[in-house]
Specification:
Number of domains: 2
CATH topology of the largest domain: Aspartate Aminotransferase, domain 2
Helix content: 25-40%
Radius of gyration: 21 Å
Bound molecules: pyridoxal-5'-phosphate
Structural class: alpha/beta
Number of helices: 14
Distance between the termini: 31 Å
Largest sheet: 7 strands, mixed
CATH class of the largest domain: Alpha Beta
Order of helices and strands: HEEEHHHEHEHHEHEHEEEHHHEEHEEEH
Protein backbone atom coordinates (compact mmCIF):
# COMPACT_ATOMS: atom_id res chain seq x y z
CA UNK A 1 0.00 0.00 0.00
CA UNK A 2 1.23 3.50 -0.80
CA UNK A 3 1.10 6.29 1.80
CA UNK A 4 -1.85 7.73 -0.16
CA UNK A 5 -3.79 4.46 -0.10
CA UNK A 6 -3.09 3.94 3.61
CA UNK A 7 -4.38 7.39 4.60
CA UNK A 8 -7.45 7.14 2.43
CA UNK A 9 -8.27 3.66 3.74
CA UNK A 10 -8.04 4.90 7.35
CA UNK A 11 -10.25 7.90 6.58
CA UNK A 12 -12.78 5.69 4.80
CA UNK A 13 -12.90 3.31 7.71
CA UNK A 14 -12.90 5.68 10.68
CA UNK A 15 -14.39 8.99 9.50
CA UNK A 16 -18.03 9.69 8.73
CA UNK A 17 -18.55 9.81 4.98
CA UNK A 18 -20.04 13.29 4.93
CA UNK A 19 -17.47 14.36 2.29
CA UNK A 20 -16.24 12.75 -0.93
CA UNK A 21 -12.68 14.12 -1.22
CA UNK A 22 -10.54 13.76 -4.32
CA UNK A 23 -8.03 10.93 -3.77
CA UNK A 24 -5.07 13.21 -3.00
CA UNK A 25 -3.36 13.33 0.40
CA UNK A 26 -1.78 16.72 1.04
CA UNK A 27 1.30 16.87 3.22
CA UNK A 28 2.59 20.44 2.82
CA UNK A 29 1.60 23.63 1.02
CA UNK A 30 3.03 27.03 0.19
CA UNK A 31 1.42 29.92 -1.68
CA UNK A 32 -0.85 28.48 -4.38
CA UNK A 33 0.83 25.05 -4.38
CA UNK A 34 0.25 21.89 -2.37
CA UNK A 35 2.48 18.80 -2.19
CA UNK A 36 1.12 15.35 -1.48
CA UNK A 37 2.60 12.51 0.58
CA UNK A 38 4.24 11.05 -2.54
CA UNK A 39 5.95 14.36 -3.36
CA UNK A 40 3.63 15.28 -6.26
CA UNK A 41 2.78 18.98 -6.62
CA UNK A 42 -0.65 20.42 -7.29
CA UNK A 43 -1.89 23.92 -8.08
CA UNK A 44 -4.62 24.79 -5.59
CA UNK A 45 -7.49 26.31 -7.57
CA UNK A 46 -10.00 26.02 -4.71
CA UNK A 47 -8.23 27.84 -1.85
CA UNK A 48 -10.29 26.13 0.86
CA UNK A 49 -13.51 27.61 -0.53
CA UNK A 50 -11.87 31.06 -0.14
CA UNK A 51 -10.62 30.43 3.39
CA UNK A 52 -7.13 30.58 1.83
CA UNK A 53 -7.44 33.87 -0.07
CA UNK A 54 -3.89 34.81 0.97
CA UNK A 55 -2.50 31.41 0.06
CA UNK A 56 -0.88 28.69 2.13
CA UNK A 57 1.69 29.69 4.72
CA UNK A 58 1.54 33.46 4.14
CA UNK A 59 4.60 34.71 6.07
CA UNK A 60 2.83 37.59 7.80
CA UNK A 61 -0.05 35.38 8.94
CA UNK A 62 2.17 32.54 10.13
CA UNK A 63 4.39 34.97 12.03
CA UNK A 64 1.40 36.67 13.64
CA UNK A 65 0.15 33.26 14.77
CA UNK A 66 3.57 32.13 16.05
CA UNK A 67 4.10 35.32 18.05
CA UNK A 68 0.67 35.01 19.62
CA UNK A 69 1.19 31.30 20.40
CA UNK A 70 4.05 32.30 22.68
CA UNK A 71 2.02 34.96 24.50
CA UNK A 72 -1.54 33.81 25.24
CA UNK A 73 -3.95 31.77 23.10
CA UNK A 74 -7.21 31.63 25.02
CA UNK A 75 -8.79 33.57 27.86
CA UNK A 76 -12.52 33.07 27.21
CA UNK A 77 -14.62 36.21 27.21
CA UNK A 78 -14.78 36.05 31.01
CA UNK A 79 -11.73 38.34 30.88
CA UNK A 80 -10.46 41.00 28.49
CA UNK A 81 -7.29 40.29 26.51
CA UNK A 82 -4.97 42.73 24.83
CA UNK A 83 -5.78 41.88 21.18
CA UNK A 84 -9.56 42.04 21.43
CA UNK A 85 -10.26 45.78 21.36
CA UNK A 86 -7.68 46.25 18.65
CA UNK A 87 -9.27 43.52 16.53
CA UNK A 88 -12.82 44.87 16.91
CA UNK A 89 -11.71 48.42 16.09
CA UNK A 90 -9.77 47.31 13.00
CA UNK A 91 -12.64 45.16 11.70
CA UNK A 92 -15.28 47.86 12.17
CA UNK A 93 -13.01 50.27 10.29
CA UNK A 94 -12.50 47.80 7.43
CA UNK A 95 -16.27 47.35 7.18
CA UNK A 96 -17.22 50.99 7.76
CA UNK A 97 -19.39 49.85 10.67
CA UNK A 98 -19.53 50.28 14.43
CA UNK A 99 -19.61 46.97 16.30
CA UNK A 100 -18.38 43.40 16.02
CA UNK A 101 -19.63 40.14 17.47
CA UNK A 102 -16.88 37.56 16.94
CA UNK A 103 -17.55 33.83 16.54
CA UNK A 104 -15.52 30.98 15.02
CA UNK A 105 -17.09 29.26 12.04
CA UNK A 106 -19.22 30.71 9.27
CA UNK A 107 -22.35 28.86 10.33
CA UNK A 108 -22.01 30.28 13.84
CA UNK A 109 -21.78 33.80 12.45
CA UNK A 110 -24.89 33.20 10.34
CA UNK A 111 -26.71 31.83 13.40
CA UNK A 112 -25.59 34.90 15.31
CA UNK A 113 -26.91 37.18 12.57
CA UNK A 114 -30.28 35.38 12.59
CA UNK A 115 -30.57 35.71 16.37
CA UNK A 116 -29.51 39.35 16.16
CA UNK A 117 -32.13 40.11 13.51
CA UNK A 118 -34.88 38.50 15.57
CA UNK A 119 -33.83 40.31 18.73
CA UNK A 120 -33.58 43.61 16.84
CA UNK A 121 -37.02 42.93 15.39
CA UNK A 122 -38.62 42.48 18.80
CA UNK A 123 -36.64 45.12 20.71
CA UNK A 124 -36.22 47.88 18.14
CA UNK A 125 -38.66 47.39 15.25
CA UNK A 126 -41.52 46.29 17.51
CA UNK A 127 -42.50 43.02 15.82
CA UNK A 128 -44.96 41.02 18.01
CA UNK A 129 -43.27 38.24 19.98
CA UNK A 130 -42.70 35.02 18.02
CA UNK A 131 -43.72 36.56 14.66
CA UNK A 132 -40.34 37.57 13.23
CA UNK A 133 -39.77 36.53 9.61
CA UNK A 134 -36.50 36.38 7.70
CA UNK A 135 -36.49 36.28 3.90
CA UNK A 136 -33.82 34.20 2.15
CA UNK A 137 -33.08 33.12 -1.42
CA UNK A 138 -33.41 29.73 -3.04
CA UNK A 139 -30.19 27.80 -3.74
CA UNK A 140 -28.64 29.57 -0.76
CA UNK A 141 -25.75 28.19 1.20
CA UNK A 142 -25.27 29.63 4.68
CA UNK A 143 -23.90 26.64 6.60
CA UNK A 144 -24.93 23.36 8.16
CA UNK A 145 -26.71 23.95 11.47
CA UNK A 146 -30.26 22.74 12.02
CA UNK A 147 -31.73 26.24 11.69
CA UNK A 148 -29.68 27.11 8.62
CA UNK A 149 -30.56 23.95 6.72
CA UNK A 150 -34.20 24.58 7.67
CA UNK A 151 -34.26 27.25 4.93
CA UNK A 152 -32.05 25.41 2.43
CA UNK A 153 -33.57 24.32 -0.88
CA UNK A 154 -30.91 21.64 -1.33
CA UNK A 155 -32.53 18.31 -0.48
CA UNK A 156 -29.17 16.68 0.20
CA UNK A 157 -28.40 19.28 2.84
CA UNK A 158 -31.89 19.17 4.38
CA UNK A 159 -33.44 15.72 4.21
CA UNK A 160 -33.72 13.72 7.47
CA UNK A 161 -32.95 16.70 9.71
CA UNK A 162 -36.46 17.87 10.60
CA UNK A 163 -38.38 19.16 12.43
CA UNK A 164 -37.22 22.42 10.90
CA UNK A 165 -36.92 25.88 12.42
CA UNK A 166 -39.85 28.06 11.29
CA UNK A 167 -39.75 31.79 10.52
CA UNK A 168 -38.18 31.84 7.06
CA UNK A 169 -39.56 32.57 3.59
CA UNK A 170 -37.65 31.50 0.50
CA UNK A 171 -37.82 33.58 -2.69
CA UNK A 172 -36.06 33.10 -6.06
CA UNK A 173 -32.53 34.58 -6.05
CA UNK A 174 -32.24 37.66 -8.22
CA UNK A 175 -35.99 38.32 -8.37
CA UNK A 176 -36.61 41.73 -6.81
CA UNK A 177 -40.38 41.61 -7.31
CA UNK A 178 -40.58 38.31 -5.39
CA UNK A 179 -38.50 39.83 -2.62
CA UNK A 180 -40.77 42.86 -2.51
CA UNK A 181 -43.84 40.61 -2.21
CA UNK A 182 -42.29 38.53 0.58
CA UNK A 183 -41.22 41.40 2.83
CA UNK A 184 -44.10 42.20 5.19
CA UNK A 185 -44.57 44.06 8.47
CA UNK A 186 -43.19 41.12 10.47
CA UNK A 187 -40.04 40.83 8.36
CA UNK A 188 -36.95 41.63 10.37
CA UNK A 189 -34.25 40.78 7.83
CA UNK A 190 -33.29 39.69 4.36
CA UNK A 191 -30.33 37.30 4.31
CA UNK A 192 -28.44 36.95 1.01
CA UNK A 193 -25.13 35.95 -0.47
CA UNK A 194 -24.13 38.85 -2.79
CA UNK A 195 -22.83 36.10 -5.09
CA UNK A 196 -24.03 32.54 -4.46
CA UNK A 197 -20.88 30.42 -4.14
CA UNK A 198 -22.02 26.85 -3.48
CA UNK A 199 -24.88 27.27 -5.96
CA UNK A 200 -22.25 27.56 -8.69
CA UNK A 201 -20.94 31.13 -8.39
CA UNK A 202 -24.21 32.78 -9.37
CA UNK A 203 -23.98 36.54 -9.84
CA UNK A 204 -27.38 38.24 -9.41
CA UNK A 205 -28.72 40.46 -12.21
CA UNK A 206 -27.38 44.05 -12.21
CA UNK A 207 -29.36 46.27 -9.86
CA UNK A 208 -30.62 43.41 -7.67
CA UNK A 209 -28.51 44.12 -4.59
CA UNK A 210 -29.12 47.85 -4.93
CA UNK A 211 -32.85 47.11 -5.26
CA UNK A 212 -32.81 44.94 -2.13
CA UNK A 213 -30.94 47.74 -0.34
CA UNK A 214 -33.61 50.30 -1.34
CA UNK A 215 -36.48 47.96 -0.39
CA UNK A 216 -35.06 46.98 2.99
CA UNK A 217 -34.33 50.60 3.87
CA UNK A 218 -37.88 51.69 2.93
CA UNK A 219 -39.48 48.88 4.97
CA UNK A 220 -37.18 49.05 8.00
CA UNK A 221 -35.75 45.57 7.41
CA UNK A 222 -32.12 44.57 7.98
CA UNK A 223 -30.13 43.67 4.87
CA UNK A 224 -27.71 40.96 6.01
CA UNK A 225 -24.99 40.12 3.47
CA UNK A 226 -23.34 36.73 3.92
CA UNK A 227 -19.87 37.65 2.60
CA UNK A 228 -18.24 34.57 4.15
CA UNK A 229 -17.11 33.32 0.73
CA UNK A 230 -17.53 36.42 -1.48
CA UNK A 231 -15.82 38.87 0.88
CA UNK A 232 -12.27 39.85 1.78
CA UNK A 233 -10.83 40.34 -1.67
CA UNK A 234 -12.13 37.40 -3.70
CA UNK A 235 -14.16 39.44 -6.22
CA UNK A 236 -11.66 42.27 -6.65
CA UNK A 237 -13.14 44.38 -3.87
CA UNK A 238 -13.07 43.95 -0.12
CA UNK A 239 -16.79 43.09 -0.24
CA UNK A 240 -18.81 41.80 -3.20
CA UNK A 241 -21.60 44.26 -2.26
CA UNK A 242 -19.27 47.09 -3.32
CA UNK A 243 -19.73 46.16 -6.97
CA UNK A 244 -23.21 47.66 -6.68
CA UNK A 245 -22.18 50.41 -4.24
CA UNK A 246 -24.31 48.69 -1.63
CA UNK A 247 -23.57 48.83 2.09
CA UNK A 248 -25.75 46.29 3.94
CA UNK A 249 -26.82 46.66 7.57
CA UNK A 250 -24.95 43.54 8.58
CA UNK A 251 -21.83 41.88 7.18
CA UNK A 252 -21.36 38.20 7.99
CA UNK A 253 -17.70 37.25 7.64
CA UNK A 254 -15.70 34.07 8.03
CA UNK A 255 -13.39 31.87 5.95
CA UNK A 256 -10.55 34.23 4.84
CA UNK A 257 -10.88 36.26 8.05
CA UNK A 258 -8.91 33.47 9.73
CA UNK A 259 -6.19 33.60 7.06
CA UNK A 260 -6.39 29.84 6.54
CA UNK A 261 -4.78 29.45 9.97
CA UNK A 262 -7.61 29.40 12.49
CA UNK A 263 -11.40 29.60 12.20
CA UNK A 264 -12.52 33.19 12.74
CA UNK A 265 -15.95 34.57 11.92
CA UNK A 266 -17.83 37.71 12.83
CA UNK A 267 -21.04 39.64 12.55
CA UNK A 268 -20.32 43.31 11.90
CA UNK A 269 -22.99 45.98 12.08
CA UNK A 270 -24.16 49.25 13.63
CA UNK A 271 -24.64 50.11 17.29
CA UNK A 272 -28.42 50.13 16.66
CA UNK A 273 -28.29 46.47 15.69
CA UNK A 274 -25.51 44.81 17.71
CA UNK A 275 -26.30 47.10 20.65
CA UNK A 276 -29.32 44.88 21.40
CA UNK A 277 -27.20 42.39 23.34
CA UNK A 278 -26.78 42.32 27.11
CA UNK A 279 -24.34 40.04 29.01
CA UNK A 280 -25.39 36.40 28.91
CA UNK A 281 -27.70 36.68 25.91
CA UNK A 282 -25.28 35.17 23.37
CA UNK A 283 -21.73 33.90 23.37
CA UNK A 284 -18.98 31.50 22.37
CA UNK A 285 -16.11 30.05 24.40
CA UNK A 286 -13.63 30.46 21.57
CA UNK A 287 -15.15 33.52 19.85
CA UNK A 288 -12.69 36.42 19.75
CA UNK A 289 -9.83 34.44 21.32
CA UNK A 290 -6.32 35.97 21.32
CA UNK A 291 -4.93 33.69 18.61
CA UNK A 292 -7.93 34.33 16.36
CA UNK A 293 -7.68 38.09 16.93
CA UNK A 294 -3.93 38.16 16.23
CA UNK A 295 -4.32 36.33 12.91
CA UNK A 296 -7.42 38.29 11.88
CA UNK A 297 -5.68 41.58 12.72
CA UNK A 298 -2.94 40.63 10.27
CA UNK A 299 -5.56 39.66 7.66
CA UNK A 300 -7.18 43.07 8.09
CA UNK A 301 -3.80 44.83 7.82
CA UNK A 302 -3.10 42.93 4.58
CA UNK A 303 -6.52 43.89 3.21
CA UNK A 304 -6.03 47.55 4.14
CA UNK A 305 -3.27 47.87 1.55
CA UNK A 306 -5.72 46.91 -1.21
CA UNK A 307 -2.99 44.85 -2.89
CA UNK A 308 -4.94 41.60 -3.01
CA UNK A 309 -8.21 43.21 -4.06
CA UNK A 310 -6.31 44.77 -6.95
CA UNK A 311 -4.67 41.43 -7.83
CA UNK A 312 -8.04 39.63 -7.75
CA UNK A 313 -9.53 42.28 -10.05
CA UNK A 314 -6.62 42.18 -12.51
CA UNK A 315 -6.09 38.41 -12.59
CA UNK A 316 -9.85 37.90 -12.47
CA UNK A 317 -10.27 39.87 -15.66
CA UNK A 318 -7.68 37.61 -17.29
CA UNK A 319 -9.33 34.46 -15.87
CA UNK A 320 -12.76 35.41 -17.19
CA UNK A 321 -11.34 36.45 -20.57
CA UNK A 322 -9.73 33.02 -20.93
CA UNK A 323 -12.79 31.12 -19.66
CA UNK A 324 -15.10 33.04 -21.97
CA UNK A 325 -13.02 31.81 -24.91
CA UNK A 326 -13.92 28.28 -23.80
CA UNK A 327 -17.66 28.98 -23.74
CA UNK A 328 -17.49 29.35 -27.52
CA UNK A 329 -16.58 25.64 -27.74
CA UNK A 330 -18.61 22.46 -27.18
CA UNK A 331 -17.20 21.60 -23.73
CA UNK A 332 -18.38 24.55 -21.65
CA UNK A 333 -22.02 25.62 -21.53
CA UNK A 334 -21.68 28.65 -19.25
CA UNK A 335 -19.18 30.61 -17.18
CA UNK A 336 -20.10 32.92 -14.32
CA UNK A 337 -18.34 34.83 -11.62
CA UNK A 338 -16.45 37.92 -10.62
CA UNK A 339 -12.82 38.56 -9.79
CA UNK A 340 -10.72 35.48 -9.16
CA UNK A 341 -13.83 33.35 -8.79
CA UNK A 342 -15.64 31.37 -11.48
CA UNK A 343 -18.24 28.65 -11.92
CA UNK A 344 -17.75 26.70 -15.14
CA UNK A 345 -20.61 24.52 -16.40
CA UNK A 346 -19.34 21.44 -18.22
CA UNK A 347 -21.25 19.92 -21.14
CA UNK A 348 -22.48 16.40 -20.24
CA UNK A 349 -20.61 14.81 -23.19
CA UNK A 350 -17.31 15.85 -21.56
CA UNK A 351 -18.16 14.31 -18.19
CA UNK A 352 -19.49 15.30 -14.79
CA UNK A 353 -17.90 18.01 -12.67
CA UNK A 354 -16.42 15.27 -10.52
CA UNK A 355 -14.86 13.50 -13.52
CA UNK A 356 -13.37 16.74 -14.80
CA UNK A 357 -11.99 17.44 -11.29
CA UNK A 358 -10.37 13.98 -11.24
CA UNK A 359 -8.83 14.50 -14.68
CA UNK A 360 -7.49 17.87 -13.55
CA UNK A 361 -6.06 16.27 -10.44
CA UNK A 362 -4.17 13.77 -12.59
CA UNK A 363 -2.63 16.78 -14.37
CA UNK A 364 -1.70 18.57 -11.14
CA UNK A 365 -4.62 20.96 -10.65
CA UNK A 366 -7.06 20.78 -7.73
CA UNK A 367 -10.60 22.12 -8.13
CA UNK A 368 -13.97 21.14 -6.68
CA UNK A 369 -17.18 20.34 -8.47
CA UNK A 370 -20.57 21.54 -7.31
CA UNK A 371 -24.10 20.49 -8.28
CA UNK A 372 -23.03 17.79 -10.74
CA UNK A 373 -22.03 19.73 -13.81
CA UNK A 374 -20.17 22.74 -12.44
CA UNK A 375 -16.55 23.18 -11.44
CA UNK A 376 -15.56 26.09 -9.30
CA UNK A 377 -12.31 27.96 -9.83
CA UNK A 378 -11.10 30.11 -6.95
CA UNK A 379 -7.31 30.04 -6.58
CA UNK A 380 -5.57 31.85 -3.74
CA UNK A 381 -5.26 35.55 -4.59
CA UNK A 382 -1.47 35.21 -4.30
CA UNK A 383 -1.34 33.02 -7.43
CA UNK A 384 1.03 34.29 -10.13
CA UNK A 385 -0.27 34.98 -13.62
CA UNK A 386 2.10 32.27 -14.94
CA UNK A 387 0.66 29.66 -12.56
CA UNK A 388 -2.90 30.72 -13.36
CA UNK A 389 -2.16 30.33 -17.07
CA UNK A 390 -0.58 26.93 -16.41
CA UNK A 391 -3.74 25.82 -14.57
CA UNK A 392 -5.98 27.14 -17.35
CA UNK A 393 -3.89 25.28 -19.93
CA UNK A 394 -4.50 22.03 -18.00
CA UNK A 395 -8.24 22.84 -17.98
CA UNK A 396 -8.19 23.35 -21.74
CA UNK A 397 -6.44 19.98 -22.16
CA UNK A 398 -9.00 18.20 -20.04
CA UNK A 399 -11.93 19.81 -21.82
CA UNK A 400 -10.63 19.06 -25.29
CA UNK A 401 -9.41 15.53 -24.50
CA UNK A 402 -13.03 14.69 -23.53
C1 LIG B 1 -18.71 28.37 3.86
C2 LIG B 1 -19.89 29.25 3.99
C3 LIG B 1 -20.65 29.28 5.17
C4 LIG B 1 -20.39 28.35 6.33
O1 LIG B 1 -19.12 28.50 6.87
P1 LIG B 1 -18.52 27.32 7.81
O2 LIG B 1 -17.26 27.94 8.35
O3 LIG B 1 -18.29 26.15 6.93
O4 LIG B 1 -19.53 27.06 8.86
C5 LIG B 1 -21.70 30.16 5.23
N1 LIG B 1 -22.01 30.97 4.20
C6 LIG B 1 -21.31 30.96 3.05
C7 LIG B 1 -21.68 31.90 1.94
C8 LIG B 1 -20.24 30.09 2.90
O5 LIG B 1 -19.57 30.05 1.75
Amino acid sequence: MTATERTIAAAEKHSAHNYHPLPVVVATAQGAWMTDVEGRRYLDMLAGYSALNFGHGHRRLINAAKEQLDRVTLTSRAFHHDRFGEFCTALTELCGMEMVLPMNTGAEAVETALKTARKWGYRVKGVPDGKAKIVVADNNFHGRTTTIISFSTDEEARADYGPYTPGFEIVPYGDLAAMEAAVDEHTVAVLLEPIQGEAGVLVPPPGYLAGVRRLTRERNVLFMADEIQSGLGRTGRTFACEHEDVVPDVYILGKALGGGVVPVSAVVSSRDVLGVYRPGEHGSTFGGNPLACAVALEVIAILRSGEYQERAARLGEHLHHELNLLTGGPAVTAVRGRGLWAGVDIAPEIGTGREVSERLMARGVLVKDTHGATIRIAPPLVISKEDLDWGLERLREVLTAG
